[in-house]
Amino acid sequence: MRVSSPNKHHKTMRIRSLEDYTAAYRKSVDEPERFWADIADTFIWNQKWDKVLDWNFEDYYAKWFIGAKTNITTNCLDRHLLSQPEKTAIIWEPNDPNEPEIRLSYRQLYEKVCAFSNVLKKHGVKKGDRVVLYMPMVPELAIGVLACARIGAIHSVVFAGFSASALSDRINDAQATVVLSSDGNFRGTKDIAVKAIVDEALQSCPSIQKQIVLKRTGAKVEMQQGRDFWWHQELENLTQTDCEAEIMDSEDPLFILYTSGSTGKPKGVVHHIGGYMVYTKYSFENVFQYNEGDIYWCTADIGWITGHSYIVYGPLLAGATTVMFEGVPTFPDAGRFWQVVEKYKISLFYTAPTAIRALQAQGDAWVKKHDLSSLRVLGSVGEPINEEAWQWYYQNVGKNNCPIVDTWWQTETGGIMISPLAGITPTKPTYATLPLPGVQPVLLDGEGKELKGNGVEGNLCIKFPWPSMIRTTYGDHERCQQTYFGMYKGYYFTGDGCRRDPDGYYRILGRVDDVINVSGHRMGTAEVEDAINQHPAVVESAVVGYPHEIKGQGIYAFVICDGEAVAQSSIEQLRKEILQTVTQHIGAIAKPDKIQIVTGLPKTRSGKIMRRILRKIAEGDTSNLGDTTTLLDPAVVDEIKEGAKEFHTA
Ligand code: PRX
């Protein structure tokens, strides 16, 4: 087998100045294929591409590095085995600071991935099969992901905060054959019964044949003979420990990751190998200005896209040391993040605005207690960062010395799209600033007309493909076409509103569709409504987002209940039960912050709920609700306004 060696001049591909950025950006627009081919040349391929790009946004498809063959783990692992086998690839920090950390060198990680690849193979997992991972933030989660990639199986990580019902929906949609889980999950003071949740989910997942269970907390679990196997025992029983990487096509799927949209059913966003590989490494190195010797920590969970691209793939492709944290920001105290920064001398730190605001609320003393002088770059992701949080992060965490990269991107984009390059792009609080090379953003007005020039505001679209863009929604390509390319012909529509200021800088204004962003987690309002409606006493509900000091957006639910049910039980009892129902159907992350029981909803004569009105009421701004004359029953608005007072007097 011939393996092409990476281009020796790859260091010159790095952007080191604003001039470099401008030149790279221009080239990426003028000669996109040449631009990406030069970058792709710095990777290991079993076979090079015949053509860099083939695409059509009208009838959506985009293919990158057509005909090329590789395995992403060859680039994440084997490659570094030659040059830096003893370098630490992963540092794992446990939930409890008294438990020892784990450090895995590139060699150890390689060995563990190969070993577990063999376990998967032994259990019948083949190229193209779907494997679901529902696990705590432990090294085995990253190992499991990489083992799937090594043998060509498609991983689908489901965030371990989702409920059994949400998990089974995702398993069934992907028709997964194997699930990787654990006995429990330490989160702060809690020990979550992971295996029990998976077992409940599997009652309605006929496609699953095997469950491989990691022992983490020692919680007692039931093992179903023939279906359930202990992770450690499977490793002990192995006879073969090395595992050659399956040769994959650049356009073979790498993973599915479910995310919320404006309908009730989450969609399985599919990313393919070649383009995702090239883009995540390129964006990681350039946005964070990664240098050899940096210790990088992204506080996200691998259950979300941020963890996929910037805990696992991007950093490992770059040969970096990536920190994985099992715990939560406030356990055992609100200084936990800063203690970890001090402990490992973190230089690149990447977190979410909601965490920044939550820690800011705990007071500056927690930050001051720790030596944060190792920090060089701070990152923000997942939601718009407000000015106050930006300033606090910059001054108290970064000591006015670390550039903040406010990185805008999405599950669907696979990698960071609009962001400063650390220390290179002049930053402006709350602005994601400029697009990365290869990213061509446009702002469209309501009619789909491109807004030219600066000082404009519109719907953010992208008009040219980039390597890590979504390829399809699993099992339903039409949904992908309609959701992202149906709104504006010829453009990828992001769902975000955006301003381009007089300097040409981009500022993300938030979602313009029925998606809300709660603590950086995407929720479809329809998804939450569907869950609420499962409660037997609920007749109908409408969910909207409202500004929330810590979470960015909170969930406000207006719920119509059966009159008899209301008469029989107290409102408080009903609210409690509705919260339980949502936790059961989606997970605690989707629990509404406010539930207002109403007798009607503001509907047009055609039966459409006027969410604009509900949003205003939820915000506590009822002075100008706009035109309500088209409503079927305008009086209902007064009643809702009256009822909402309960939430706005405090
Ligand atoms: O609304 C934008 C917001 O998060 C959405 C994407 O969510 P998700 O797919 O879960 O991915 C989150 C992590 C990449 C976007 O449509 N968003 C993400 N980053 C930012 C942001 N909004 C403003 N500024 C950001 N930096």
Question: What keywords describe this structure?
Answer:
alpha/beta; Rossmann fold; GMP Synthetase, Chain A, domain 3; seven-stranded mixed β-sheet; five-stranded parallel β-sheet; 23% strand; binds adenosine-5'-monophosphate-propyl ester
Give an overview of the whole structure.
The protein is of the alpha/beta class and 650 residues long. Among the domains are: 106-253, 3-Layer(aba) Sandwich (Rossmann fold), CATH 3.40.50; 517-648, ANL, C-terminal domain (GMP Synthetase, Chain A, domain 3). Helices cover 33% and strands 23% of the residues. The protein has a 7-stranded mixed beta sheet, sandwiched between helices. A 5-stranded parallel beta sheet has the order 7-6-8-11-12, sandwiched between helices. Strand 16 (295-298), helix 10 (305-317) and strand 17 (321-325) form a beta-alpha-beta unit. The mean pLDDT is 95. Bound molecules: adenosine-5'-monophosphate-propyl ester. Adenosine-5'-monophosphate-propyl ester binds next to helix 10, strand 19, strand 20, strand 24 and strand 25.
